[in-house]
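Example 5.3 — Phenylalanine--tRNA ligase, mitochondrial
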Amino acid sequence: SESRPLPPVQTPESLNILGNTYKTDEWTNATPTILSLTDRKLHKQPNHPLGILRNLIETKFEGMGYTYYNDFEPVVSTHENFDILGFPEDHPGRSKTDTYYINQSTLLRTHTSAHEAECFKTCKTPGYFITADVYRRDAIDRTHYPAFHQIEGARTWSRNEHGNNIVEVIRADLEALPKPNIVVENPSPVFHVDNPKQDNMSEVETELIAAHLKRTIEILVEDIFNRAKEVAIAAGSTDPDLHAPLKARWIEAYFPWTSPSWEIEVWWKGEWLEMCGCGIVKQNVLQNAGITDRIGWAFGIGLERTAMLLFGIPDIRLFWSQDERFLNQFEAGKINNFKPYSKYPGTVRDVAFWLPHVEKDGDLLHENDLTEMVRSIAGDLVENVSLHDEFVHPKTGKKSQCYRINYQSMDRSLTNSEINEYQDQVRQQLSEKYNVELLP
Ligand code: FA5
Ligand code: MG
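Solution (predicted structure tokens):
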């Protein structure tokens, strides 16, 4: 049941997704495999690690003026996902190699920020959290999967309501927040020409909103990582970092709809882990949502990587498992270490070919296209796809590539003949769809 039938090479005229019908066009690239994930709603399962983590975060901010949205459907307009947030026309995130399009004006959201404008418009409290599944065409490996989950947080203050007192109100809100016990390197990188404050906000307002944003994220990070430390210690880890205060750092970032913008990284098991992007919401984004009197912040945090370290889950694909041996290990409100139930060896296969001659480099077979094709053939049995080798013929200028595919199942051993069949289909589709010249 893990493997899926070959997708139709022809795109159907329309797609039915979550009860709605959409016309397809030359932009359509969402596959049946990816569309089959849209109704899982893992973040809403109380006994699933992602549901448990969402609940833990929501509980942490209970009573602090946030509304929680968990029911936004994943099909959104290109306008909501990109235009309204000020993504430039040529932003790479818009390309068909990175994003799953239903048709030219409709797509699977690539981030929870797609709902910011709507929430700013309708939310009755000063802040909100949105939790949802998001989709990106990406490499597959232990920590990347084409579907994952994010929590968006946002908080604003009204000039109309607070008038000249707005600075005092934000300062009081900041001082009311608990002070987390974290060692923060570079706690307040200042804004400057490349990461500027906005014209309609004073320096003091910008500094205070930034401090409120960072404090809020640090509270979250402290809570999550202290739990992760307890779990790691209970599991017998002797890493001395586990007994020292948590370390984090702020670095500058860029997002089209925030300025200034930052990312937080947390020191975990010997490396800096990217946790979340954030910034001060740009005025035009709020104005597009009909909000003219508010200023404030937004952040977006990925759930899977956090859940992997909290629950000791070794592979991101496990979150989508329907195997009882996975699902039965978790319980609402509890964080415990995942116990692997079995390990089956993987099988590595290569596929090599000459690429056809093309006018522009952009017409070449893209790594994401190949990954996607392999995934639509062998489903979650594909552990990893990577470009292994590339060669340009010195005389003809022709390019050959070798891709390495690792097939592996979490719950059974795969037979050689089964893998041969997948490999045959991969080769067949490569030559039919991409006109490559296969090497033996
Ligand atoms: C965003 O998606 C922005 N929407 C975040 C944001 C919100 C910024 C509001 C400003 C204001 P980014 O692409 O960096 O940014 O993703 C945010 C987080 O999602 C990352 O820090 C990471 O934790 C997680 N993430 C990103 N890509 C993946 C992936 N392929 N698999 C798992 N988690 C991912
Ligand atoms: Mg990022």
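Remark. The radius of gyration is 23 Å.
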